[in-house]
Each structure stands twice: as C-alpha cells, then as structure tokens.
UniProtKB/TrEMBL annotation:
It holds the Pfam family PK_Tyr_Ser-Thr. ATP binds at K56. The keyword Transferase applies. GO terms for molecular function: ATP binding; protein serine/threonine kinase activity. This is non-specific serine/threonine protein kinase. Gene3D superfamilies: Phosphorylase Kinase, domain 1, Transferase(Phosphotransferase) domain 1. Its EC number is 2.7.11.1.
Length: 592
C-alpha cells in the first residue's frame, strides 16, 4: 500500500481553530453521530487553505484512549487514495480527541439511498461507479506491501461511503479497523470490549484470498424480505427504465456471490472490481429513450490515437468520472490525430447518426489550465448562479470548481428552498430551466381533500405531487417572474403529469394559454389522453426521458429589457365531465 509521508506536527490544529470553524460545536454545524462521537461541518482559516472539513469529535466516554487515538491518527494520515476520505489534521488539546477530514459535500451513500429525492437522481451508471470506487478503496486497504499492514475496515457499509462533489466514493470511519501484517496475527487499531450495542455489523472472519464482506447482515435482510431468489425485486423503480438488464445481470451475479453462505465461494476484491467494471461497460451501450435506437460509445482503448503507446506522450489511467477502466491523457504533443471506427451492422438501420467527441478534454500541460480554469467555466454559468444555488435544499453545493458545478447543473436538477421549485441548466445552450412544482401552481379546489390528494411518489423530484380524486372543472395555472430566466431566449412551457391506471375523463378537449408582455398564445383541442376518434388538429402529450408525460402550454420570447410575469394555464371548464387519476408534477419552462 502506497502511503503519503505526513508530518503530524504540521497537521496539528489548535482547539481554538476547531472551535471557530464549528461555532463552538453548535448544532447548526452538526452533521451526525458515529460510533465513538459526533461529526461537525466547518471551514478552516487560510492557514489550513480554507478547507471545508468534517470534524470528528470523539466522545470522552468512549473506549478509545490516547494510545488508540494516536494509532488511528497515524493510520488515517497515511492513506493516499482517491477512494479514501482525505485526512486534513487532528487536535488533542485540552483532553479533546478530534480528527479532521476533507468534507464530502454530497453526504453519505445511505442518505442518498434513503431519501426519495436523492435516490431518484442517482442513476444506475452513477451507482455502478460508486460501487467500483468503493471496491477499489477496499482493495487499497487490503493491499499491504513492504512494511505496511493490510487494513481490515470492519464497519464497511453505505453510511461509511461518502460522496464528493462528483459523486466519487470516499470510504471513511476507520475507528474499528484492524491492522493485519502479512506475517503476524490480526491486531486491533483500538481495543473494544463490547460493540454489541452498535447498530452495525463488525466482521470477524478474515482470509488472505477471501475479502471482507458484511455477509450476515446482508443475508438476514434478504431472508427477512424473501429476496433470496428474487434480487431483481430490489431494482429501484425510479431508475428501472434506464438500466440495461445485461448490466444488471452482471452486477446481480457478483452480488449473489458476495452473500454466499460458503465463504470459500465468495469472490475476491479483484474479481468484484472486474465484474463491476464489466457491468459499467455494458451500461455504456444504451438505447436512445425517445427513438429506441442503438447508441454506442467507443472507449479510448478502441480508438486509433497517434503514438498512444508512447508513455512520454500519453498516459493511461482510470478517471473516476469515466465509464471505462482507462482514459488516455495527453502529456505533450504537437500533432494530434484521433480515429475511430465501428461496424455499421452494429447500428440501427434506416437511421442518421451523429458522432460526437463527448467527454474529450485537453489535458496536456499547455491546455490543462484553460480546461480547468474557474474563470473559463464561470462564463458558462448564469450571472446569478451564487444566489440560485444558495437556495438549494439539503446539502450546499461546493463553489470550488466551476467546471464541476456547471456539469452538475447541466446533468441534473437541484431543488430550491422550500422545495416547490427546481432549477437546471439546459445541456445544449447552458440557459436556465425551471420547473414549478404542483405546490407553486394554482389548481382549482387543490386544498379540498374531497377532490385532490397531496402525497410524495418516488418518481417525482418534488416532496409532494397533486393527485386528482374527482373533479368536473379542471383548471391549472402557473406564473413565473420573467427575470428569473435567460435573456434573449425563446422558451417553451409544458405541463408535466402522469395518469393512474384507473383514470377517467381525461380524453376530452381542453385549452392551453400562455401570455407575456402583451402577447397571448392559445391552443384548442388539447388532450391529456387520446380519444377514440382523432382529428388532425388535436394536440397530444409526449413521453419524457424521465418517464413523465408533458403537453405544451405555449411559447414566448424573453429579451433584454422585458419584464413582468409569464402566465400559463391548462383549462377544461366547459364540458363538465368528471375526471380522476391525473397526477400533476408541475410546469416546466425550458429554452427551445
């Protein structure tokens, strides 16, 4: 195991600095509790590079004494791996025992999986990358070389897998770890007399060729839920549509092996890494959601790159953001030539394809500064981005890397306080997109429980959606201040909805309306569901990539100097048909 040479005296942080960073360990800075104390969030001063940090304050009544504390500090300060949480410093003033780590802005994996909003935006590909990163971190811990010990974590669970700005896995909490030299018996980092009271499983069986797994805990969950022969029942319904089942079956294969009751049949970490990487590669082949046609991405290893095997010019390594095991990084070159080819028989017939150099970045010394420059990427962000992201619900977004911030906002939405408005940047234009949640809309009789039900469903980005129980007069209105949008743009507005299996009365003609700046756009014969008899001028909804339906309410131009509010409406108030089974998520505005 390669380790970083750290001068611990230089890493000693005065208690005064800790108190300042945590506002005297205030509840406002409290993040959570661990087995041996509490964790607080704080920002250190310039002396410590203004690091945003997680401060682990050990309970004085815990089993850990000074010797064990020193051992843990020595242990975590030696780690040097992208999938292990980074050590920043420690404090042992005034009988305090504090260890400081770099803050992981996206909290822990268990919080993402346990929160419907966070879980919904965690794609299958991202989940595979997190698993792969965690497995690589475990391999690093187990790969003791020379005088270094291999390390057995003993508390490996989703709560101890943190996620950074880029959703890269960071293993944390080594308080129960074992140091296990190759030529000696297992030795504890700390002495623990009784851990039975902790709601976590601490594995006790170790073999050189069979790695450490939380078998009993996982197995009991499967037994309790009747899932021994039905792992597919665990597929998250919010991402089912995006999963390539061949990828899932590959992952399923290794997952079953990991919970095998026969320890001799459990896989090694190397095999786990290989299988998850294969599942990730399979997932990189996809079908376009709208057309159902085949999509491929050729990895760098499949391309013909001039002098790619010359280590003086190119470097091959794994990048956490990549779906492939290796990417090709340009070190220095004056003649750049990249070619790729694919057999046409692999593609969908009668189709026009675009070939994009997606995820290509200039990483040579000459171009790297521009490609990563905050000044460059800030130009792609809206002028009021700081104010917008300051309203984000849940965890704050890091402002450190403008590139990461832009990519995050263009690849997924964020919820803005108090949870009834979502924001995103359009992938193609970089312009602002908003969705008004159902709570932000004016819906006739929306607060009468006889007619409408408010609840959360896993497929929605919002805490609550509005479900129609029964009504004969359907009127949905929304408005937004035009100044929130991107200037010199044409916007479309859409009603975003679903229908239940027992829905009725939605295949009747309605009217949509949009008005802004003195202009008004009205559309007749708008249907939420198709009627039996269809005419050419009828307007129907379309299915979105996220599984919801949308129907256009209108479009408008917003130019510099314009002001006022954009008014949008869907109405069916003439025919008096009883309706039920409509699920309203909101109204989305996005640039054309």
């Amino acid at each position: 195991m390669s380790s970083s040479q750290v001068n611990l005296e230089e890493c000693r942080i005065p208690l005064k600095e800790i108190m300042r960073a945590t506002q005297n360990f205030s509840s406002h800075n409290w993040v959570g509790d661990g087995g041996f104390g509490s964790v607080y969030r704080g920002q250190l001063s310039e002396r410590w590079k203004n690091h945003l940090v997680a401060i682990k304050r050990l309970d004085r009544n815990s089993y850990q004494g000074s010797i064990e504390f020193t051992k843990e500090v020595n242990l975590v300060s030696s780690f040097n791996h992208p999938n292990i949480i980074q050590f920043v410093g420690y404090c042992d003033d005034a009988n305090e025992k504090i260890i400081v780590f770099k803050y992981a802005s996206n909290s822990s994996l268990d919080r993402h999986l346990g929160d419907p909003e966070k879980r919904r935006i965690l794609t299958w590909e991202q989940r595979l990358k997190i698993c792969l990163g965690a497995a690589r971190g475990v391999k690093y811990l187990h790969s003791g070389v020379e005088e270094h010990n291999r390390i057995i974590h003993r508390d490996f669970k989703s709560a101890n897998i943190l996620l950074d700005d880029n959703l890269e896995a960071k293993i944390c909490d080594f308080g129960l770890s074992l140091l296990s030299p190759r030529n000696q018996g297992d030795t504890h980092v700390r002495t623990i007399k009784d851990c039975c009271g902790m709601m976590a499983y601490h594995a006790t069986r170790f073999e050189d060729t069979k790695e450490l797994y939380l078998i009993d805990l996982v197995r009991s969950y499967y037994d309790d839920h009747g899932l021994i022969d039905g792992l597919q029942k665990l597929i998250d319904p919010t991402i089912r549509a995006q999963i390539d089942m061949s990828s899932f079956e590959k992952f399923n294969e290794i997952a079953h092996d990991c919970i095998n009751l026969d320890v001799r049949k459990r896989p090694t970490v190397d095999r786990i890494i290989k299988t998850i990487a294969e599942a990730l590669n399979i997932q990189s082949f996809q079908l376009d959601i709208e057309s159902g046609k085949k999509c491929y991405m050729l990895g760098a290893k499949e391309l013909s790159i001039r002098w790619k095997d010359d280590p003086q010019l190119w470097e091959w390594e794994h990048a956490p953001e990549s779906r492939f095991p290796e990417v090709c990084i340009l070190k220095e070159l004056y003649w750049l030539s990249i070619h790729g080819k694919i057999a046409s028989v692999m593609l969908s017939p009668n189709s026009t394809y675009n070939a994009d150099a997606c995820r290509a970045a200039s990483l040579s010394k000459g171009f790297n500064s521009a490609a990563e420059s905050n000044a460059v990427w800030q130009e792609f962000l809206p002028q009021d981005y700081r104010e917008i992201i300051s309203r984000r619900m849940f965890f704050p977004l890091s402002l450190g890397s403008k590139k990461r911030l832009y990519l995050l906002l263009s690849n997924s939405h964020i919820l803005l306080h108090p949870g009834n408005l979502s924001f995103q940047l359009d992938k193609e234009s970089g312009k602002k997109c908003y969705m008004l949640g159902a709570k932000e809309l004016s819906i006739t009789w929306q607060h009468d429980t006889q007619y409408w039900e408010w609840t959360h469903i896993p497929e929605s980005r919002f805490p609550e959606v509005c479900i129609l129980k029964q009504v004969c007069w359907l009127s949905i209105h929304g408005r937004i201040v035009a100044g929130m949008l991107s200037q010199n743009s044409t916007y479309d507005a859409y009603l975003v909805f679903r229908t239940t299996e027992d829905s009725i009365g939605l295949s009747v003609p309605a009217k949509t309306r949009l008005s802004f700046g003195g202009s008004k756009m009205e559309t007749e014969n708008v249907y939420l569901q198709r009627p039996h008899h269809v005419q050419e001028n009828y307007v129907f909804p379309h299915k979105r990539k996220d599984g919801w339906m949308e129907i256009k309410l209108g479009e408008f131009d917003y130019n510099e100097g314009d002001n006022g509010k954009v008014e949008m409406a869907y109405e069916e108030i003439k025919l008096g048909h009883w309706k039920k089974g409509l699920i309203v998520e909101g109204i989305e505005l996005r640039p054309k």
